[in-house]
Specification:
The complex is a heterotrimer of chains A (about 90), B (about 160) and C (about 750). Chain A has one domain: Ubiquitin-like (UB roll). Helices cover about 20% and strands about 30% of the residues of chain A. Chain A contains 2 helices and 7 strands; from the N terminus they run E-E-H-H-E-E-E-E-E. In chain A, the strands form 2 sheets. Chain A has a 5-stranded mixed sheet with strand order 2-1-7-5-6, covered by helices on one side. Chain A has a two-stranded antiparallel sheet with strand order 3-4. With about 160 residues, chain B is α+β, with helices and mostly antiparallel strands. Chain B folds into 2 domains: about 80 residues, Roll (Ubiquitin-like (UB roll)), CATH 3.10.20; about 70 residues, DNA polymerase, domain 1. Helices cover about 30% and strands about 15% of the residues of chain B. In chain B, strand 3 and strand 4 form a beta hairpin. Chain C is an alpha+beta fold and about 750 residues long. Chain C has an 8-stranded mixed sheet with strand order 8-7-9-17-16-15-10-29, with helices on both faces. A 7-stranded mixed sheet of chain C has the order 3-5-1-14-11-12-13. Chain C has a 4-stranded mixed sheet with strand order 18-26-27-28, sandwiched between helices. In chain C, strand 20, helix 14 and strand 21 form a beta-alpha-beta unit. Classes of the chains: A alpha+beta (about 90), B alpha+beta (about 160), C alpha+beta (about 750). Chains B and C meet through helix 2, helix 3, helix 4 and helix 5 of B and helix 1 and helix 17 of C.
Chain lengths: ~90, ~160, ~750
């Protein structure tokens, strides 16, 4: 089960929990699973079928270039981050 | 429609003739009419020195001189520094001291350096910095440029070889 | 300083003349404004004088009727937008219903001469309905601030706001328990900082020439950090097939992130299509200040706590960054820089991206980082002083190590920050006596001080492409799509030479265009020498493999028996070809040998930099003179040491300008007052001393030669280093950038109020 770190601004939906374990083979599946347990979490990070503007996902410490389609391993750690641009 | 003037002058040692309107700057004439694009425009209001040229040996911003003003006079641009023997010692010094990054301000600095060393072959660091303060560089922080001027002075005085 | 075991290199690490040096010395190099095409017309962009207004109507008829005018375009000539981001980009090209900053483009004209194009543009009739403007970072967040975008609601992970706002987004990082961390602290410091908008200040303005073939192919010659970025942008805005757009990058006269974005390419393309002639647009200098992307003005509220033995227990910060007219400030990476180098157990950072009536910001060398570093490192200095600790010792005590987690949730990789601090501590400047400083009673009346600041920058990897082709004489042509801003064609060629075992003069590097090279991300983020170098090394390995196979075929031996070293292919039986000899055989033995490597480098080595500044402050005028300056930086492995020094010196000088001189100033109508190189002052040769450099090399394991990015880290520490020096000189801590004489005099109590009306 992947571990999702819940950002502080979303903990109102998870009863204060800062880490949640959910199954999923892709980021999209993990978010769906998260939303099933804590309704409303998907709407916070997604705009229809892609990540919300300004939101990035890191899987095991690396920002997922594939976004929602990024693969997730059974013990992966997911984080939601603000999008960082290079310069 | 034309109010153009025929201007005859010497540029880099060669006689030239061109037509220009009274409001056109020497910078515009060099770049757009005479196709000498080595002299650059950075601001067009005399504040950056990228358009430095020599006018009868005097350092000027070409954006502040009118094309019609150079009639009968001599202009030196960066294109006039190297000759059949190769790069001018000032150019060699800048190259070998790595005194450039993007290279856009370089023509202006080369001309300004020539103007300085023509009148003072042995300037101090403070004198070099004061003389070059009309030339803006955003890339280098000026350190290597000052060293290049010192190296060029050395070369021109035949006192030393440039350290690569 | 930790001794490093260095791999021996033959080419990497040498100081070589640059391949593009001769052309740059003689004026032959072709920069954006130097491009001319036969039949070319000149374009001029008409821009709004108002900072905020409804655009009621545009009547171009008088301009179109002027003899010598070939085309006039406005926003009506752009295809409709298909998303919010698209609408922002489209509106920033030409305004549609509103103008959002003084300088916002509303129309463009192509005519026979530049003067005629401008004359025609000035008789385009534009009707505006003026609106109140807001340029201040905090004023724009107030409930009574004029709203820029009626449909903007604050986005955050807490949900979407339910009313119009100029706060585009909010994010929050949290680690541990900040309240408990502050409770544990023996000393707490807290300050607010305001930093003005600054511009990258490249000396070459944006310039582009667009031309269409009669079968609908658009070619653009432009000065840019990324030919593919321009192509992507033009394709998007003009709704063109990618195969119909070719972008040819010119030499670039300075960029620093400001040429990652396309500004006038689309306008030139529209004009060229209507006029059926090539059109050139060169942005006048004032337009560069008004209408390209500067960095963000910002406000920081920062709090830091530590125990008496010098351990930081908690950090807290609020960051407000002005994005200009459309959202997208670098507040996220600013937050990463804030306390980036340190291992802090508890912290909370709140970042706000806000819109203001100014040009849309773009990247500037370590985007968002310099003002954040100013806030953090001056506060750290204050904390160190209150604890009675040496500034470098305090930083060492709290420095992050590999594997430590940052406040933003990221993890430090293999870093050299501690080595850099130790090298700074050990360098001559740090311990040299400062005449007239607090330690000296000799020079009364001289107010001198020494300050230190430290910074970390993540750098970038990204996508690069490099092609190598063996020529019949044994030289190798190298073509890359990575635009060369300041010498990377040389550093990439050096890495190829090293990998091929050839002397560098046998490599012939060039930069290609979007038709003849593989995709590359912009040359930015300190990534080019690093990532494109990786591509070059990969291509070199493949070339050698192919050549070994050729040698094996020619000698009729198994390929495993063919070795390669230092430019020579050989077998144990003393069969031997130099690469040049083998190259001569190549075209008759199976065709030419070439290889292209396309990489997407996902991991990159962070760069750390410590700066030491000695200043003298005139207490009557507030003028700050830099007496001595040293940059210490970890570069992994210096490919070309002179170029690395140049990056350190140049970045530091930009930071010095940011610290002391530079800032956008506005009048009450929101119009920029200093859009020129006189009133927007960048450092001259008189403003900086020789800048000493100490290169530290902690090789980065993911690059074959240990290379790290070098360009961005050195712009981060100068404002804090100088502020900390000013404090030791005159006993006041500046909290505003730029630290103008007026600001210092105000802090010293000599004058009552600020004179410059900056935007924060």
């Amino acid at each position: 089960m992947a571990i999702v770190h819940i950002p502080p601004l979303m903990r109102d939906l998870t009863g204060g929990r800062d880490k949640v374990s959910v199954p999923g083979k892709t980021v999209a599946q993990v978010i769906e699973a998260l939303d099933a347990v804590y309704p409303g979490t998907k709407a916070r990070v997604c705009d229809s079928d892609h990540l919300a503007p300004g939101v990035a996902v890191s899987v095991d410490g690396v920002v997922a270039r594939l976004g929602l389609h990024a693969p997730v391993k059974p013990d992966s750690i997911l984080r939601f981050l603000p999008v960082i641009e290079g310069g | 429609m034309t109010n153009k003037t025929l201007v005859s002058a010497t540029i880099n040692g060669e006689p030239v003739e061109f037509l220009c309107e009274p409001h056109q700057s020497l910078l515009e004439c060099l770049r757009d009419i005479l196709e000498l694009t080595g002299t650059k425009e950075g601001c067009n209001d005399g504040n950056c020195g990228a358009c430095s040229v020599l006018l009868d040996g005097q350092l000027v911003n070409a954006c502040l001189v009118l094309g019609v003003e150079i009639a009968g006079r001599a202009v030196t641009t960066v294109e006039g520094l190297a000759d059949w023997r190769g790069l001018h010692p000032i150019q060699r010094a800048f190259l070998e001291t790595d005194a450039f990054q993007c290279g856009f301000c370089t023509p202006g600095f080369l001309i300004a350096t020539k103007a300085l060393l023509d009148r003072d072959p042995n300037p101090t660091e403070a004198e070099i910095r004061a003389w070059l303060s009309g030339n803006l560089c955003r890339c280098t922080g000026y350190d290597k440029i000052v060293r290049a001027v010192q190296a060029a002075a050395c070369l021109l005085n035949a006192k030393c070889e440039v350290d690569a | 300083m930790t001794a490093q075991k260095k791999k021996p290199f033959t080419v990497v690490g040498e100081r070589l003349p640059r391949y593009d040096g001769a052309d740059k010395m003689t004026g032959k190099a072709i920069f954006g404004p130097d491009v001319t095409l036969p039949g070319m017309l000149h374009g001029f962009v008409l821009r709004s004088p108002h900072a905020h207004a409804r655009l009621l109507s545009i009547d171009t008829s008088r301009a179109e009727a002027l003899p010598g005018v070939y085309a006039v375009v406005t926003g009506a000539d752009l295809p409709p937008a298909e998303s919010t981001d698209h609408r922002y980009a489209r509106d920033n090209t030409f305004a549609s219903d509103k103008v959002l900053y003084a300088g916002h483009a509303v129309a463009a004209v192509a005519a026979r001469t530049p003067t005629l194009a401008e004359q025609a543009a000035r008789i385009i009739d534009v009707e505006y309905e003026l609106l109140p403007a807001v340029t201040d970072v905090l004023d724009t967040t107030r409930d009574d601030a004029p709203i820029l975008h009626d449909d903007m609601r604050t986005r955050s992970l807490a949900g979407r706001g339910n009313k119009s706002s100029n706060v585009a987004s909010h994010f929050q990082h949290m680690k541990g328990d900040p309240a408990r961390g502050f409770a544990e602290a023996d000393v707490i410091v807290e300050r607010e900082f305001h930093t003005a908008t600054v511009h990258q200040g490249y000396i070459e303005s944006h310039a582009t020439v667009a031309t269409w073939s009669d079968d609908g192919v658009l070619t653009i010659h432009t000065t840019t950090q990324g030919s593919f970025a321009v192509r992507d942008h033009v394709v998007w805005l003009l709704n063109l097939p990618m195969s119909k757009v070719r972008v040819v990058p010119t030499e670039v006269g300075g960029a620093f992130g400001g040429k990652n974005t396309s500004y006038v390419d689309v306008a030139a393309a529209l004009l060229a299509r209507k006029a059926r002639r090539p059109v050139k647009i060169t942005m006048p200098r004032p337009d560069v200040f008004l209408a390209t992307g500067p960095s963000s003005g910002a406000v920081f509220r920062v709090k830091l706590g530590a125990t008496r033995d010098g351990r930081i227990t908690a950090a807290q910060a609020e960051l407000f960054y002005a994005a200009g007219a459309y959202p997208g400030s670098p507040v996220g990476s600013g937050a990463n820089v804030l306390f980036g180098p340190y291992a802090i157990p508890n912290g909370q950072i709140d970042g706000y991206d806000v819109v203001t009536n100014g040009p849309r910001v773009s990247s500037y060398r370590a985007p968002g980082g310099t003002p954040a570093n100013f806030a953090a490192e001056t506060l750290l200095d204050e904390l160190a002083e209150k604890l009675g600790l040496d500034p470098i010792e305090f930083r060492l005590r709290n420095h992050a190590r590999e594997g430590d987690e940052r406040l933003d949730g990221g993890t430090h990789g293999h870093i050299g920050g501690i080595e850099v601090l130790e090298a700074a501590q050990a360098c001559e400047h740090y311990t040299a006596p400062l005449e007239g400083g607090p330690h000296s009673g000799l020079h009364r009346g001289l107010h001198r001080g020494r300050g230190v600041a430290h910074a970390a920058w993540g750098n970038w990897g990204g996508r690069s492409s490099c092609a190598l082709s063996v020529n019949g004489d044994g030289t190798v042509s190298l073509v890359t799509s990575s635009v060369d801003l300041s010498g990377t064609r040389t550093t990439i060629a050096m890495q190829a030479a090293e990998a091929l075992g050839l002397p560098p003069e046998r490599i012939k590097p060039s930069v290609g265009d979007t038709d003849n090279t593989g995709y590359a991300d912009v040359s930015a983020g300190s990534r080019t020498t690093y990532a494109t170098g990786i591509a070059a090394i990969q291509a070199a390995k493949d070339v050698i493999a192919q050549m070994r196979a050729r040698a094996a075929a020619l000698w009729d031996v198994p390929v495993e028996t063919v070795g390669y070293a230092d430019g020579v292919f050989s077998t144990a039986d003393a069969l031997r070809f130099t690469l040049a000899e083998l190259a001569e055989q190549v075209t008759s033995s199976g065709g030419s040998v070439s290889s292209i490597a396309n990489v997407d480098v996902g991991e990159w080595g962070a760069g750390f930099s410590t700066h030491i500044a000695d200043v003298e402050v005139d207490p009557e005028t507030g003028k700050v003179t830099l007496l001595r300056y040293t940059v210490v930086q970890d570069v992994g492995q210096a490919v070309h040491p002179a170029m690395v020094e140049g990056q350190m010196q140049g970045g530091a000088t930009q930071g010095i300008g940011w610290a002391l001189y530079e800032g956008y100033a506005y009048n009450d109508a929101g119009q920029m007052l200093n859009a020129n190189f006189l009133d927007y002052k960048i450092p001259t040769s008189l403003d900086v001393p020789m800048i000493e450099t100490v290169i530290v090399e902690v090789p980065y394991p993911k690059h074959p030669f240990g290379v790290r990015g070098v360009g961005e880290p050195p712009i981060l520490p100068p404002p804090a280093a100088i502020a900390n020096a000013i404090y030791r000189a005159v006993g006041v801590r500046p909290d505003h950038l730029p630290m103008t004489p007026a600001h210092l005099l105000e802090k010293m109590g000599v004058i009552e109020s600020r004179i410059m009306n900056h935007d924060s």
